[in-house]
Amino acid sequence: MSTRDFYTALNAQLAGLLSTERDWLANTANASALLFMELPDINWAGFYFLHDGELRLGPFQGKPACTRIPVGAGVCGTAVATGEAQLVEDVHQFPGHIACDAVSASEVVVPLYDGDRCLGVLDIDSPSLARFTREDLQGLQDFAEVLLQNSDLSGA
């Protein structure tokens, strides 16, 4: 199965999973579980939400994680500060990387927006270098869009 086909199927599965629920907590918990179950070669999948100028840990699957990340710090904080998704082949080469899990080697972070307002980020880590491709990034941005369209994340 091609990467594009994989994400088409994954995003359809997410849409079905969220079709009868709009609660942000339930939906982000299920979304992180779905990613952790379906994405190969990852060790963390979850969300951070923006509160009072910092990112705070939300639902996730994987090892315990950093609970607060300042905007502009690490890969997640950089995604919020720049408003751009981050695709990092080697997190150990990323300036200011925050090592919540020393095993993580690559990372992809997708900012979540409600109009012009950043709500937080979708964050996925892998123990393999260069695990994520541009196709993965696009598929995960589409995943985030399905989540945003089917959830009331403004209450997060």
From TrEMBL:
<dbReference type="InterPro" id="IPR051330">
    <property type="entry name" value="Phosphatase_reg/MetRdx"/>
</dbReference>
<dbReference type="InterPro" id="IPR000614">
    <property type="entry name" value="FRMsr_CS"/>
</dbReference>
<dbReference type="Pfam" id="PF01590">
    <property type="entry name" value="GAF"/>
</dbReference>
<comment type="similarity">
    <text>Belongs to the free Met sulfoxide reductase family.</text>
</comment>
<feature type="domain" description="GAF">
    <location>
        <begin position="5"/>
        <end position="156"/>
    </location>
</feature>
<dbReference type="InterPro" id="IPR003018">
    <property type="entry name" value="GAF"/>
</dbReference>
<dbReference type="InterPro" id="IPR029016">
    <property type="entry name" value="GAF-like_dom_sf"/>
</dbReference>
<protein>
    <submittedName>
        <fullName>Free methionine-R-sulfoxide reductase</fullName>
    </submittedName>
</protein>
